[in-house]
Amino acid sequence: MTETDIKDKLAAWGAWSRSDSSGLGYISPCLLMMRGNVAETRRAPRAHYISDDDAMLVGAAITALRADYEVLAEMVIRKYYRCWTAKEIAQHYLTDIEYPRLAHLDWEHRDKKRSDHRHVGLMLKEAERMIEQYLS
């Protein structure tokens, strides 16, 4: 599996998890295409297709990752389920974990230390590698 494959699989898992279906089951590809043409305020989602079984396996891999590396698992969830950018993850999640004594400060405060979005990218790559190993 290549790096693109695991990212596509995680993106498909995120879309599957966000879907408004009440559980497992078949969703018509036509419905997915129609749903994909609706304008959204955040980002235009790409159409992702994943079987229920594959999505459950990805979910199990993320759960296994959470058991040992909770921060990495939470970053994967924020990236692929909540569709946050690396900058948003750094600003709203990782900064307060890395600098807990400064968590009460406003983001624009002159003494506030900030996590770098490039650090988030490196951590996400490591998490994706671990999930890929679990799936293989």
What descriptive keywords fit this protein?
136 residues, mainly alpha
Question: Could you characterize the architecture of this molecule?
Answer:
This protein has 136 residues and is mostly helical. Helices cover 62% and strands 0% of the residues. The protein has helices spanning 3-18, 29-36, 52-68, 70-81, 86-98, 117-135. The chain is globular and about 50 Å long. The mean pLDDT is 81.
Distance between the termini: 8 Å
**Order of helices and strands, N to C?**
HHHHHH
User: What level of helicity do the residues show?
Assistant: 55-70%
Strand content: under 5%
Total number of beta strands: 0
Q: What is the chains' assembly state?
A: single chain
What is the general shape?
A: globular
Class based on secondary structure composition and strand pairing:
mainly alpha
Largest sheet: none
Low-confidence stretches: none
Total count of helical runs of at least 4 residues: 6
Q: Which value, in Å, is the CA radius of gyration?
A: 17 Å
Could you report the average pLDDT, rounded to the nearest whole number? 81
Q: Brief overview, please?
A:
With 136 residues, the protein is an all-alpha fold.
Topology:
Layout (H helix, E strand, L loop, with lengths): L2 H16 L10 H8 L15 H17 L1 H12 L4 H13 L18 H19 L1
Helix pairs in contact: 1-3, 1-4, 1-6, 3-4, 3-6, 4-5, 4-6, 5-6
